[in-house]
Design brief:
This protein is α+β, with helices and mostly antiparallel strands and 212 residues long. It has a domain of 148 residues. Helix content is 31%, strand content 14%. Helix 2 crosses helix 3. The chain starts with a helix and ends in a 5-residue tail after the last helix. One of its GO terms (molecular function) is demethylase activity. Belongs to the MMACHC family.
Length: 212
């Protein structure tokens, strides 16, 4: 519910809907690359002008929206920003309050070893670890769900030592991706997918056989 999200954030980040409004948080799993992105690129080759992943997600969420012709559905994407330069929504907070993935932050560590350093938090999924992404929100403004019960996300990095290791790896060694394997995972990105996301955005077109 929108209220769960708004309750943990400052007013500047609130979503402008009543508290009981129904929202779905959309995640992409490791198989998204083969099952969604590559077929999308093959089909839409001539229409891809921005970011292939963003356009693929936009396409699929538009298809979801079309499945509800009698409902108003507002779609928000993780890459969208407001005129104030703030993101339209805070993806990791949304995933946490929806029970989709646990958002580990500095406040989850009792004996903080970082002093004055800025430490960013990161979401970990109980099945995919860090091998997933939060892609968007589907808001149903006309559907109110006052009796929906909130599910807590699975706390899968439960020891102090592991949480410190996770935040250390994410903040200071994120390029090597080790933080993604902080727990045993059921599925991870393929080598092809890892190579794609490790490539600077401007050069990814070549990997997909696209001319920019």
């Amino acid at each position: 519910k929108v209220g769960w999200y708004n309750a943990v954030l400052q007013p500047a980040f609130h979503l402008p809907y009543p508290d009981d409004t129904l929202v779905f948080v959309v995640l992409s799993t490791p198989s998204m690359f083969d099952k969604a992105l590559k077929p999308f690129v093959n089909k839409e080759r001539l229409k891809i002008i921005r970011d292939p992943v963003d356009q693929c997600v936009s396409h699929h969420l538009s298809c979801v929206k079309e499945k509800f012709p009698d409902q108003k559905v507002d779609v928000m994407f993780d890459y969208e920003i407001l005129p104030s330069r703030k993101p339209k929504f805070l993806a990791q907070t949304a995933a946490h309050v929806a029970g989709a993935a646990y958002y580990y932050q500095r406040k989850d560590v009792k004996l903080d070893p970082w002093g004055k350093k800025k430490i960013y938090g990161v979401c970990i999924h109980p099945k995919y670890g860090g091998w997933f992404a939060i892609r968007g929100l589907l808001v149903f403004p006309d559907i109110q769900v006052p009796f929906l019960e909130q599910s807590a996300p699975v706390d899968c990095v439960s020891t102090e030592e592991k949480r410190i290791e996770l935040l250390e790896q994410f903040n200071f060694h994120w390029q090597d991706g080790r933080y993604r394997d902080i727990i045993e995972v059921k599925e991870r990105y393929s080598e092809e997918q890892k190579a794609y996301f490790a490539t600077p955005p401007a050069e990814r077109f070549k990997l997909l056989g696209l001319t920019q």
